Amino acid sequence: MAENILYLTELLGLKVYDLKRRVLGRVRDAALVPVVHPVRIERILLSGGGGYTWVSVRYDQIESITLDGIYLSDEHLIPYHEDEYVLRLVRDLLDQQIIDAQGRKVVRVTDITFDIRREALRDVLHVLEVDIGVRSVFRRLVQGVLPRRIVRKLQHYIPVNSIRWELCNILEPDPQRRLRLNIDLTLLEEMHPADLADIVEELSPEDREAIFEAIDTEAAAEALSEMEPDIQAQIIESLETEKAADILEEMDPDEAADVLAELGRETSEEILEEMEGEPKAEVEELLEYDEDTAGGMMNTAFVAVHEDGTVADALEALRRQQELADTLNTIFLTDLDERLKAALPVARVFLARPTRKLSELVQDDVIKVPVREKANRIIELFDKYNLLTLPVVDEEGRMAGVVTADDIISVLRQH
User: Fold this and answer.
1) pLDDT at 1 over 50
2) pLDDT surpassing 70 at residue 81
3) Got the DSSP string for 36-74?
């Protein structure tokens, strides 16, 4: 066979021959056991003469595999019994949705490509690719109607559309079976949060829950931040309370508060009860404000330095809050009572000498809003002054939080 390739469509229905070249049955399915080997087909499942009893052929009982049939080197076969550690390709994968980690999309499996390898004087099937294109649909439509070799010749005129097996993520809602099948979601955790969010939004509620239960808490929090409010609420409500609390603790307080605001009161209170210390206190504070006010929009994570401090003091403050490094663009100056006095672009601080006073770098009056300021006014200020960050102060002028350009974009998307 060309290039030692075999397709699942071709494998199904192949005759299986014993040592005397008598037909034992036809192939009905093929199975991986991922905890044993990630790509090797461990078992071929076939039906006998009556078609009612399936038997299992181990990979080491096979001598050769061709388009004409499978020839055994050992015919001591046993009846097939259900095994939770087995991934059956026809039952569990064919026509099912999977995630293409490289293409960052949800796709439907229409066929599977195997690599036939010669190992220890026997042919062994290794899963090579998942097929998702028109070529694989064509194979399925004409298989059994035209001879396999004719189908192979005709398919050359159709472009290949497939995904390498190692770039596929299988969706399995059952956490115990996910563990037994050794399903690794590392590829999803390494995706950009916005891409993962787009993928999750395409899935069924059961598959969404499965992914968020299984992936790293930080990756889950980042992806959840990119989703629409109604889907955020659906996902959080579907999770165990402890898991939901862990994810919300990893989110920015304002985003976590927005999610909880979408939930029913009882559910929200249960999750808050599970949250810990500082994140819990910050979220509870934000929940006191109406969502269309500065207090409801703001994030309580910011960097503030005393107005008499130096550039070196500001840099040290930045080091203590490295988790803000990717998004921080402004440092705020406050007095001893934490009242806001000025704002400095981070770039201006980096360019100055460490001994220089921060107050000497201030060039403009600080633009700020009270916690009760309405969203419409805040949007006007961002537009008028081309702001990236807008500080929010309480009734006594103390720093309460910041509204960022991302917050404004989120508000505009909801309108």
Assistant:
1) no
2) yes
3) T-SSBEEEEEEE-SSSS-EEEEEGGGEEEEETTEEEES-
